[in-house]
Amino acid sequence: MRILVCVKRVPITGGKIVLSDDARTIDTRFLGFTVSPHEECAVEEAVRLVEAHGGETVVLTLGPVEAEEQLRDAMAIGADRGVLLETDGADWDPQATARAIAERVAEQETFDLLLFGNEAADSGDYQVAVRVAHALDLPCVTGVKSLEILGGRIAVKREAAGGWEVFELPLPAVVAVREGINLPRFPSVPGRLRARKKPVETVPVKPEAGGQEMVLLRLPEGSGKQVEVLGHGPEAAPRVVEVLRSLGMVS
Amino acid sequence: MILTLVEHDRGRLNELSLEALTFGRRLGDRLGVPQHALLIGEQARSVADGLSAFGVAVAHLAVHDELWDYAPRAWARSVAELARVLEPSAALASASDRGAEVMAYAAALLDAPLAANCVEIVAAEPGDAWTVTRQRWGGSLLEQAKVSAPVKLLTVAPHALLPHGDGPSGTAELSTFMPTLSEQDLAVRITDRVEVGAGKVSLSEAKVVVGGGRGVGGAEGFGQLEELAGLLGGAVGCSRVVTSNGWRPHTDQIGQTGTRIAPDLYVACGISGATQHIVGCRAAKKILVINTDPEAPILSQADYAIIGDLRQVIPAISAEIRKASGA
């Protein structure tokens, strides 16, 4: 199987996000970078499928030159090579991002399966996978937490109220996965060393205007809540039950 | 006009759609235009009853022999086709799993932008560009974005507003249409369902959720949480650390990459409160924290707290509830 996995470089924001002075970006001067947990799982899923069925995993990102780090991270757990659609670091809207990815795939490569994270950790647009699928005329399911190969088809499952929904689709297909589809492995030291030698192809891409443009960012207001400490240790239990009673949860 | 997708599963309304309808009604009132609803499939006919309370003037019902169950692209085709005919100012849906998926397809079909997880419309002048506020990072950051398109496609962030249906009771005018569906539109559809945990309270719908984090210490520690949840008729959830350690299945995870919960009460036990977790639980009406650390970030989100070891505190609360209910 030939599998493409798309990832996005995002800062590790930790507990508190700090904005730049112009409120158009996150201040990343003191931050490390990663990809979303959904995308880590997408890479792991691709690597497992290739381990089981043979083939190749290609990891692709659209981002600044520094995003090569995220391609190397994916190659450290088993992706075979990387493609960097290199931007000048500006924010691309999901329409333009999907167009660039679809163009690259249509021109250069054929894949049996294209995997995405369900949404990027930062922008959370929930649409790049679907747009790529539409541009390439491929079937697509999002929110997937289980994937099984059935010959030339796949069965995927996603969580729904009270259980799972099952979809079957022909390959080639696009699937947006969620964290929980697997438990990603940690990169080994030999894996990291091998990743350094794997090929990365860099393709400069020019920004194209999409229909959605970020104007500025702001932090949401705090919860405004003032916590009431009901007590310390097990002795606080009667107070808790009083509160539960006032909420109508205990008779 | 505002066109709002009302989501259902085999005729059962998704409550998140009521939030989208509330959002759509307020937007329509502001612009002085009516709200229309879109329901997909014959099974949705009964869902149309009661929509007028949410300010729906006309409910459009897409009927087609092949629309007997959820098929994302066929649903999107119905949205796109109706949007082309009606030319609404905006077409919106809740950013639920299906809402997000259908609107993404609709945006692709219409080759239009889609502003996901909106919480407010800042400026909606007649014309091609609107300014919206939307969630990034699961809601821990807000973005003002300009959306330029003849029909603005939006999804509404779940739990960002309370559904409010105080309009006239009665029935919205029902108008049926048959979308033109290609084979490809129907290529992806639900082929099977697996029901699990029959009779169990699901995390996203539970009125009470008891969540455990690193402080629970291991898989076996969740027994105490199960007991407390059982006494309160609730469900058990957990933080990301817990699923990464394999103590609980990922279906139990509350957070940005897990389930977003909105119970009346969330009891957070041994959870420090990483942003990833907070965005998944802050829609809870009340939050009760049990933690040894009085400085834990989760306390800034909490209504009540008990400072102490959950292994002593939870059994004491369970015992006290039993005593109170005479069990």
Walkthrough of the structure:
Chain A has 251 residues and is of the alpha/beta class. Chain A has one domain: HUPs (Rossmann fold, 3-Layer(aba) Sandwich). Helix content of chain A is 27%, strand content 31%. Chain A contains six helices and 14 strands. Chain A has helices spanning 37-53, 68-76, 94-108, 128-136, 189-197, 237-246, and strands at 2-7, 10-11, 33-34, 56-63, 81-86, 113-117, 140-144, 146-150, 153-160, 163-170, 173-177, 200-204, 212-218, 228-232. In chain A, the strands form three sheets. Chain A has a seven-stranded parallel beta sheet with strand order 7-11-6-1-4-5-12, with helices on both faces. In chain A, helix 2 (68-76) packs across helix 5 (189-197) and helix 3 packs parallel to helix 4. The model of chain A has no long low-confidence stretch (mean pLDDT 95). With 327 residues, chain B is α/β, with parallel strands linked by helices. Helix content of chain B is 25%, strand content 28%. Chain B has seven helices and 17 strands. Chain B has helices spanning 16-31, 72-86, 97-110, 222-231, 240-244, 275-281, 310-324, and strands spanning 2-5, 8-9, 12-13, 35-40, 56-62, 90-94, 114-123, 129-136, 141-148, 152-156, 173-177, 190-195, 208-212, 235-238, 265-269, 286-291, 304-307. Chain B has a nine-stranded mixed beta sheet with strand order 9-8-7-10-6-1-4-5-11, sandwiched between helices. Chain B has a five-stranded parallel beta sheet with strand order 14-13-15-16-17. A two-stranded antiparallel ribbon of chain B has the order 2-3. Chain B is elongated, with a radius of gyration of 22 Å. The termini of chain B are far apart. The model of chain B has no long low-confidence stretch (mean pLDDT 94). Chains A and B meet through helix 3, helix 4, strand 7, strand 9 and strand 10 of A and helix 3, strand 7, strand 8, strand 9 and strand 12 of B. Strand 13 (212-218) of chain A pairs antiparallel with strand 9 (141-148) of chain B.
